[in-house]
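Provenance

Sequences were taken from public entries as deposited. Structures were produced by running a predictor on each sequence independently, with no templates supplied. The record for Arginase from Heyndrickxia shackletonii is shown for reference.
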Amino acid sequence: MGLLNKGITIMNFDETYFAQQALQHYPHDNINVQQLQHVSLYCEEDSLKEINSFLQKRQHRGITFIGSGNYHYVTYLLLKDMKKPFSLVLFDNHPDIGQNKGDRMLSCGTWVSYALSNIPLLKNVIIIGPTGSEASRIQSPRINVFSFKGNQVYSTASILSAIPTDRVYISIDKDVLNPNEVQTNWDQGVMTINTLLSYLKSILQFKKVEGVDICGEEKLSPLQAILPNYQSIIHKNEKANLKILNSCLKGYEAQLKGA
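Predicted structure for Arginase:
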């Protein structure tokens, strides 16, 4: 059990990650897609094909940093690489399943529905952490929601029991965390980083995790990045990224020991 694939990839839709120097210190693949148009929130078909082309050329497929939650739809492309039946475990303050059946363009708010409709190997989606009312309206036998509205607490055993497959892909949007932990460009949940890491550790221990992606950065321009108040945002977000990253790397080491 553990993280099956090694290596880190950082996607640069903008300059946000450039200011996270400790994260940059880790060996990684860089994917520069700053030149692409019509990719924020929604992604047009031509740009989606280009992003997929870049992803297929990467050497490291273990952990992918996507950037802002505006680009969370990239997870859809990463899921299409799966070769065996699997479950998606999504940590997110939003279900990302879309509001209208007529949603036809892939977006950061519809990609989960796209995945369920177009990836036959995806058997179930487990969404952990949403606080909004839309999560309570989800009625699908293939989606399990662990809402964090109020003071609800779930054991790691209850999370694991909801995952029916041995193989898992994990997607983390840091907007699932409370504002004391990170700052994102979307409304945020109430989860603590320690709770997230506890769930992550258990899934890595008991499931075969094919890959992990992480998004939820506050989009910053190079000018903003040098301002003191934005420096504190960068520090908080990078600190969370490094904690998540190191938990995943320990999961990969555990997989090697068990091989």
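The chain has one domain: 2-258.
The chain is about 35% helix and 20% strand.
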